[in-house]
Amino acid sequence: MINLFEVVETNKMIEQENLDVRTITMGINLLDCADSDLSVVKKKIYDKITTLAKDLVSTGEEISKEFGIPIVNKRISITPISLVGGSCCKTSDDYVELAKTLDEAAKKVGVNFLGGYSAIVSKGMTRSDELLIRSIPKALAQTERICSSINVGSTKTGINMDAVKLLGEIVKETAEYTKENDSLGCAKLVVLCNAPDDNPFMAGAFHGVSEDDAIINVGVSGPGVVKYALEQVRGQNFEVLCETIKKTAFKITRVGQLVAQEASKRLNVPFGIIDLSLAPTPAVGEILEEIGLDRAGAPGTTAALAMLNDQVKKGGVMASSYVGGLSGAFIPVSEDQGMIDAVVAGALTIEKLEAMTCVCSVGLPFREILRQRPFPELLQMKQQSAWSIRRQRQFVLFRLSEKVWAKPWNLAVCLDMHQSCR
Amino acid sequence: MKKTIITVVGKDTVGIIAKVCTYLAENEVNILDISQTIVQDYFNMMMIVDMNKAQKPFDVISTELAELGEKIGVIIKCQHEDIFDMMHRI
């Protein structure tokens, strides 16, 4: 039987160390909504989403109450909309109409975000894909909860540089369209390679064509818990360090597994995957310091990060029946307090960040480069990064966000890179 | 049978257990196990209870217990046992 200390430990993780379930994301297949008439497609999409996901938010809240674990976001991911709208959307504005319908559906069911305003153009771009990509700035400016992602490359096919070039313009245009609102549009757009079909995290979430009609994916995070656990074993050897990370990752993922199973049972939708990603709530950089670095960016950072990622995955795999394609660490320089502090202190350089991107997702600050170098050269840098990363089975996303300009050290373009564990 | 874990954490005062138990009895919640300790100067109590016969739904009992806790000056949480089982048992 459960004892008092285990109960206290669990509750302490939740209350003091910010353990939470980041998101329950329902993946919905919209391929059966395709039609040549735009108004029919809009109606079908709206009906399907509002029927399947009508209880998603209330179920999430119920589970949260019963188990006493916060579930921060409830989201929906859908089939990449360029596949669904291919025959009915003749212009970019038609896609914007679809985006508005999706936004209405998202608001109706009460989810925080709906992802899947997407196109997969890793090898070539269809006319429909291009129309969708061109509609992104307008669509993101006129909707509130829609997230867009474009897959521009894969390990097998390489990178579609035409799409990268087009998206460079689209990213700037998106920033321009939402400039009154902190260029928020860019925060809802990612451009990436090797996108997993079952990602529950925004803005890269979409429901891949290889998935069920509907599935439940769950994302968990808990860097505070890992940090606290490591504080308890300070000064011990590497074996203990690795064991501690693994055990903690196991415990965190088990909570996600429980929530996913319950949600799947109550909504009568099959369970998809658990994705454990240590994300900045508030700081993954501090874990690196706890491992023994003076600061993120100091010699040994890449090794420490590789070890952290490896152990998190190993712990997670044991804890869940299905682990998602994105699991690992996620430390965007623009958001992670530990990384921001390291940059302010002058400890973290671009070269180090490049090395770290070989392990997991970080962000490259391009503001300074942008000031000094013309755009084509910047684009070339992006290409080089993307190429070296592709070889290592990574996938890449970059965002331009006015929002991060406000940070003390001014970022303009982030090249965020995620690792694909598959 | 789904068991529920009730945890009470706070500064130790007279009558905490009495008040919580009275509430549970009034609502036909059966107590299966109680353990209690002082961790870091705080009163920590855990009860394993069976709510199957309770008249009120889970979230009502959970909210009312939390309100009762506020009156006594402690934090009372009500959670299904599964979350602890999942995390600590393979």
Instruction: From the 3D structure, determine the CATH topology of chain B.
Output: Alpha-Beta Plaits
Q: Please state the average pLDDT score of chain A.
A: 81
Count of helices of chain B? Answer: 3
Q: What is the number of independent domains of chain B?
A: 1
Structural class estimated from helices and strands of chain A: alpha/beta
Order of strands across the widest beta sheet of chain B?
2-3-1-4
Describe the model.
The complex is a heterodimer of chains A (422) and B (90). Chain A is α/β, with parallel strands linked by helices and 422 residues long. Chain A is 48% helix and 18% strand. Chain A is built from 16 helices and 13 strands. In chain A, strands 1, 2, 3, 4, 5, 6, 7, 8, 9, 10 and 11 form an eleven-stranded mixed beta sheet that branches. The two termini of chain A are 37 Å apart. Residues 365-378 and 384-422 of chain A have low confidence and may be disordered. Chain B has three helices and four strands; from the N terminus they run βαββαβα. Chain B has one domain (3-88): ACT domain (Alpha-Beta Plaits, 2-Layer Sandwich). Chain B has a four-stranded antiparallel beta sheet with strand order 2-3-1-4, with helices on both faces. Chain B is an alpha+beta fold and 90 residues long. Helix content of chain B is 37%, strand content 38%. Chain B has helices spanning 16-26, 58-72, 82-88, and strands spanning 3-10, 30-39, 42-50, 74-80. In chain B, α1 (16-26) runs antiparallel to α2 (58-72). Chains A and B meet through α1, α3 and α10 of A and β1, β2, β3, α2 and β4 of B.
